[in-house]
Write a structure and sequence with these properties.
CATH topology of the largest domain: Thiol Ester Dehydrase, Chain A
Strand content: 25-35%
Number of strands: 13
Oligomer: single chain
CATH class of the largest domain: Alpha Beta
Helix content: 25-40%
Number of domains: 2
Largest sheet: 7 strands, antiparallel
Number of helices: 7
Distance between the termini: 67 Å
Structural class: alpha+beta
CATH superfamily of the largest domain: Hotdog Thioesterase
Length: 303
């Protein structure tokens, strides 16, 4: 077996079809359940991972957020011919990584009784009986607390989060928070319930605010890392809403989505940043924000 195999999200319509077909074949077909019973109404807002070997799906799993800091793993399945080779563990670890980056603190899952020891080895603790599936398969509720993935940048990210909440009331009401920052990428998230409209989708205004402040936050972090001072203003922006967000959203930007340099601030000149932010719903990009931020050095304002 290739030990370097990494779980990936389905990348095409055919891969997604194969993913669901495998899920049905392993988890539903043996109990004479119809095709389609392997899916629910949370698929579009979930994070999906699969392992493919020799063009065949051999392991799958799904994560969805039930609220801002809680997530659930469901639909774990591994081909019986590859069991014992660590594929299930790879899927769980990949989903945990994504969960932590999206701000999840506690993961819950309902394990078949026969798989409890597998999850215990991965740090999950049994909480008691959950339900009986098809009148014969006992499930046990299990939970695990994740370690935040702030890396060594935790203090700086917390400082930014405090700045948002202290100076921008909307950010505090949204419970805007940073779940990941490593100097290369920034991930933020916000409360689900507060930011939903009467259609149970995320307010367009909340999406825009999440994206705008994520971009602003990226520039703020760069200023602080370079020990420079300046006022950050949004000079121009546009956003494309690609699909409704049902459930949790998170925003991402990275060094590859940003252009601009801070060095000109040392000459008393304004610095200009152009960047993009993706607002995500599970694996899918739900909105794309493009903004231009200008940093005004304090020396200009003090003249």
């Amino acid at each position: 077996m290739n030990k370097s195999i990494t779980p990936q999200a389905p990348q095409s319509v055919q891969e997604l079809k194969d993913y669901y077909q495998f899920r049905w074949k392993i988890l539903r077909q043996p109990w004479h359940q119809p095709l389609g019973s392997e899916q629910d109404d949370l698929e579009q807002q979930a994070t999906h991972r699969m392992i493919v070997i020799d063009e065949q799906v051999v392991a799958v799993g799904r994560l969805h957020k039930s609220d801002q800091t809680n997530g659930q793993i469901r639909f774990m399945a591994v081909n019986e011919y590859t069991q014992g080779q660590g594929l299930g563990r790879k899927i769980v670890k990949a989903l945990e990584l994504e969960a932590s980056k999206q701000g999840v603190i506690t993961i819950t899952l309902n394990s078949r009784e026969s798989a409890v020891s597998f999850y215990e080895k991965l740090g999950y603790q049994a909480q008691g009986f959950s339900h009986l599936l098809y009148d014969e398969i006992r499930h046990i509720t299990m939970t695990k607390t994740l370690t935040p993935r702030m890396n060594h940048q935790g203090e700086l990210a917390q400082e930014l989060q405090n700045t948002w909440h202290d100076t921008i009331p909307m950010s505090k009401a949204m419970n805007l928070a940073i779940s990941y920052y490593d100097q290369k990428s920034l991930i933020t998230h916000c409360d689900i319930a507060f930011n939903q409209n009467l259609h149970h989708t995320m307010f367009a205004g909340s999406i825009y605010t999440l994206a705008t402040l994520t971009g602003w936050g990226w520039v703020y972090l760069q200023l602080n890392q370079e020990k420079l001072a300046g006022d950050i203003v949004l000079a121009d922006a546009n956003i494309r809403y690609l699909q409704p967000i049902r459930g949790a959203a998170y925003a991402t930007t990275s060094i590859n989505q940003v252009s601009g340099k801070l060095a000109v601030l040392n000459k008393g000149k304004k610095a200009r940043f152009t960047l993009s932010v993706n607002v995500m719903s599970g694996d899918k990009i739900a909105a794309i924000f493009n903004g231009v931020y200008v940093v005004i050095p304090h020396t200009i304002g003090n003249k």
